[in-house]
Amino acid sequence: MSRYTFNAGALRITKARTARLIPGTLKTLLGAVAGLSLISGVVLIILGHNPGLSLTGVAVALITTLIWIRRDLDQLPAAAVGSTTQLEALLPLELASHYREPFTAAGLWQALGAGWETRFICVRFGLDLNLIAQILAQSSLDPDQLWSTAEQTSTELGLPTLEAGTILTALFAVSPELTGYLTKIKLTPADLAEGARWVHRVDELSHIKRPIYGGIARDWASGFTPQLSRFGTNISLEVESAAGNLATQERTDQLDDLVTGLNSASGSVVLIGEPGVGKSALLLGLAERLLQGRASRSLAHYQIYSLSASTILSSSERSGDIERIVMTLLSEAGHAGNIIIALDEAQLFFGQGTGAVNLSQVLLPLLQSRSFKLVLALTPGDWQRLKATNTAMASLLTPLVLAEPGQANVVRQLADRALYLEKGQLLTTYSALVEAYRLSGRYLQDEAYPGKALKLLEAAFNHPDGSFISEISVEQAIESQFGVKVQTATSAESDVLLHLEDKIHERMINQTRAVSVVANALRRARAGVANPKRPIGSFLFLGPTGVGKTELARSIAALYFGNESNIIRLDMSEYQQIADVDRILMSAAENPSGLLPRVRQTPFSVVLFDEIEKAHPNILNLLLQLLDEGNLTDTTSHPASFKDAIIIATSNAGAEEIRQRIEAGQALETFEQEFTNSLIDSGAFRPELLNRFDEIVLFRPLNQAELAQVVRLMITEVNKTLANQKIIVALTDAAAAELVVAGYDPRLGARPMRRMVTRRVEDTVAAMILRGEARPGDTITLDAGQLGGGSEPTPVDPPLEV
Amino acid sequence: MLLVAFVQWWYGPGWRDAAGRLLARIHDTYLLFSVPSLLTTMFAPWRRIISSPGRSIGDRARATLDNLISRVVGFIVRLIALIAAGVIITLYLVLGGILLLVWPVAPLLGPILIVGGLIF
């Protein structure tokens, strides 16, 4: 015997099915007929024609019927969950009108599919209605388990009655086949529960009644505020014109605290939170409450004016102007008697930050006199500074700390915003909301939730994916904003990744072992196999000068991040003092081109720590944290993520030993471990640092044959420079060999070759161009004797063109 | 069955619902005209336009006169608003009262009028 029963003959079911038979258009038509009948009936009665009575009677009968349909048949509230086990009372109206016994999963799905709620969830979550019908046609479910799960879901979501969304969620939760289907599309029943909440919210928002914000005489007992209107923004007016559509959710507790603070003895509150945490949204919520008179009797119909420090500062022409303006504004607020002043960027009024002015002396006596109410917005750091520098002022303020909301809360706020942004033209998928949360958390680290996620979602509306805002839209938004790659590798990119070694060797000579190690790490990262909580890859490049360590770093930047300029290079010989620790952690305000601001700006970069062995030991400790946790925190306590960066440290330590071993004929692979141990034993590096690198990569010295290839690569670069002039430079084998002999220094590797090419090739070609001996279309082939002051070369067909 | 359901609703919840909607409409009008605020600030100065009393007797007298004028203006405007609210609420009460009185006979009125029109 099933615990839940369904009586198809119950009055509610009969009424629901009757209501279903009368569509909205028919109701409108009946209304029109009733109106016309009434008017013509009355007119005929006045004119003395008896049929007028019948027409009026028809009108009265129609009106009576329509009232019944609209006020009874279309309403039929469901019973509260837990109050009964009779489905005819529990089911939502639309479902009740379609539901049939005996219970089958497929039948229930068919009944659910008739409602807009199911279609809403299927579209937003990418669920295939037909596929689900096919799955359910072959599965049987325990109805008691389904209905009790649906009731439990409603209770967990705080919904008083069963709704189509909660029943759908329960259906997916109790059906193993549907749970499997969800898993395949990377969803869970918990996600669908959020969908049910979203549907409920849509329904709620569509039934919001325009509130009455105090009526026509609201401000008749309050003073005029011309100066506040000039220098500030009336937040309450914004709320009033939005007519309830700015309703904020999940902020009830914070609003209660804010109202309590404003009603306290001091009457002034400081909102403490990072940018984006929702200080402005909280003020909107407060304005809504105050206008509706729901906050408290003493604050009913107060209005909030937000003063912008920058507007006031820019309006002052002479010394003392700012103080005068602020005094005027605050006096006006006090006199008006119904104003709360909100100071955004309040730190600027207390002498903190660029362009700031210290108005403590002006504000303090006014706050002490409690002649008006004030809400300040400060970051935690600015609040601490205010407390340290102005205790008297801080003691007059009631602090209210706004913490970052969790994922579920942020996603709900995103869902609300999405409905507002769609404007009936686009549809936002649930995965787009989750992606906006995830990506903003990772890449917008200067701001807090929910602000950064909302900002990213808004940006995604510039990148519609067909008629949807999908996760691709969000990824495109973050890519266009940051120039970073977050989307799955395309086939073209996959080709580059699969042939990374070949691509790198187009720019680099030899070092096959180093190239191979790095290429493998990059492939792991792009395929999503690497640990997402650490940098994409971290490498310690060891080897003599001029063997290609920096060139490999540049190649990675060019091939992996698409641009050779995506490299942040730090010469660690400039960070040898303990004071340099602070320098490396400078915030954007202190040094916009510092390491952390640059990593925030271009998170997908190669970060190159050159000559790491020269850095101060405390900086190496920072490097430990960076490699371990994938982030560093700047001097203002803002984290910077290195999780999308490739960390490369280079060092010449042990270069001589590598050179000797290679010359002795040993292969790199055979002595890598032994060499690493010797570096630890010699104290060059601490073992904990070496252990944190993904790979320690040894670079071998280049021999003369390899240097000849390097020379040819350099000539290719020269030709790229000359491409505009349509002149090509080529070297004979003898010329290349002569350059190698002249520039070879086993201690400096390829580095002297750059000088040789500049002096002996570029200078020679420049002289020829200036003398008019090389013209567009010429190929200049330089032989050994013609380099750098030798006999004049002759334009001939090149025996060796590189 | 539907006829029974209609009758049950019309003479029970439906009637109460109509009365409730009328009261809600009156309450909205009451709020729209800010009646509570008008009553509590009936004699307050209009938009807080007041003069500070000076030191001399003449200044004080002028300030008192200014403030009196502000209060009188405020009173007149508020009184007009209150009268308007009163008129509208009275209209609602009268028309709504008639509707509630007619409510029980409305279901019968339609058929009676139809038949009456045909007979007479």
Low-confidence stretches of chain A: 789-802
Give the overall shape of chain B, derived from the CA principal axes.
Answer: rod-shaped
Q: What is the CATH top level name of the largest domain in chain A?
A: Alpha Beta
Q: How many individual β-strands of chain A?
A: 17
Number of strands of chain B: 0
Beta content of chain A comes to: 5-15%
Q: What structural category do the secondary elements of chain B indicate?
A: mainly alpha
Measured by DSSP, the beta-strand proportion of chain B falls in under 5%
Explain what the structure shows.
The complex is a heterodimer of chains A (802) and B (120). Chain A is α/β, with parallel strands linked by helices. In chain A, 54% of the residues lie in helices and 9% in strands. The longest helix of chain A has 23 residues, at 24-46. The radius of gyration of chain A is 37 Å and the shape is globular. The model of chain A is unreliable at 789-802 (pLDDT under 50). By secondary structure, chain B is an all-alpha fold. Chain B has one domain (2-119). Chain B is 79% helix and 0% strand. Chain B contains five helices and no strands. Chain B has helices at 2-10, 13-32, 35-40, 57-102, 106-119. The mean pLDDT of chain B is 94. Classes of the chains: A alpha/beta (802), B mainly alpha (120). The A-B interface holds A 11, 14-15, 18, 50-64, 67-68, 71-72, 212, 214-224, 301, 335-337 and B 1-2, 5-6, 9-10, 13-14, 17, 28, 31-35, 37-38, 41, 44, 46-49, 74, 77-78, 81, 106-107, 109-118, 120.
